[in-house]
Amino acid sequence: MNRQSLSKAQARRVALAAQGFLDPRHETPTMRTLSRTLARTGVLQVDSVNVLQRAHYMPLYSRMGPYDVELLRRASEQAPRRMVEYWAHVQAFMPVDLWPVMRHRMESYRAKRGKWHVMAAKPELEESLLEEVRERGASTARDLDDGLPRAKVHWGWNWSDTRMVLDYLFLVGDLAIARRNSQFEVVYDLPERVLPAEVLAQPTPSLADANRELVRRAARAHGVGTAQCFRDYYRMPAKAAACAIVELVDAGELLPVTVEGWDRSVYLHRDARLPRRVAARALLSPFDPVVWERARAEALFDFRYRIEIYVPAPQRVHGYYVLPFLLGDRIVARVDLKADRSARRLVVKAAYAERDAPSDVAEELSAELRSLAGWLGLGTVQVDPRGDLAPALASCQRAS
After folding, report:
1. What is the pLDDT of residues 119-160, one digit of tens each?
2. Which of 52, 274, 359, 393 is the most exposed place for a label (fewest CB within 10 A)?
């Protein structure tokens, strides 16, 4: 049987459609709009960097347009909760119905005593903290800690024993994250006070069923991809993902295809849409699912992308917090952005056009920056003179 063959442009359009870039934007996004968008992305990565906007807010904006961020707070903090934080991709919001599927991951972390490093068992502290949360209600590590000062080391803070044990209890599912406070600190609570009762009552699927479900969701979110694409989406073991892919191919849910320029096995989800065109215009967070798997972004968009937050300033090529600019079905530019909240300015610290960018890239990017600034509550857009696109972009801003 001949395999379906996709051009690179077709594969891009399939991928963008799967991620929700075909969905019509609502004039006023509602909770239904957010739920639809979360169903497309499957996860929203959480990150502490706030130079522009927290990472989990941005993919929703990129697909929905300007929306009231109170929607996300309600969806993640108020009953009926629609999403909850877990180590799903990395730290990320996921739909609440994935909690039972993740129980095997939780038990794996329990057996390994952590996700990266083995954490020494502290049964008395674990039980004490669980009892404290049970009695006090939702609490931060600071609420529960002994208050000892911590020393600043490199780019992060040393964690106290309390913080490490709380993180372990979260990983193994004994605690859940109820919310983040205004300092972005995790607020822990018992799962039964966070997750809907009907979700907690769901039986744990077999490990094979759980693996199939994770690959199934990853494939829907991708539309088309390789085993590495699907495995990375929920950070699955390679062997587990490979076995699930074989089973989903046998069931007809995944269709082996070829894609122009890809030299690995590629699979198309049977429900994936192949639109004739995609009319997207969006700035993508560095943590957006479209670009977080850098090899995939390069294969689909001919776009080489590296986040440079942890690169010393003199060695950065494009800037500190650089967002790709998606126009149509191509990534045509990248901009280093900063929200200067005290001056109510969106600062474009640098702007670069990609090779073969269309002639209207500055005009389209200028309009998108004005929309982003408005959503962030910033009054003006300031374009600094760095990057080959900066002069034209500054001119468009002056004209607007």
Report:
1. 777 788 899 999 999 999 999 998 987 543 434 443 344 467
2. 359
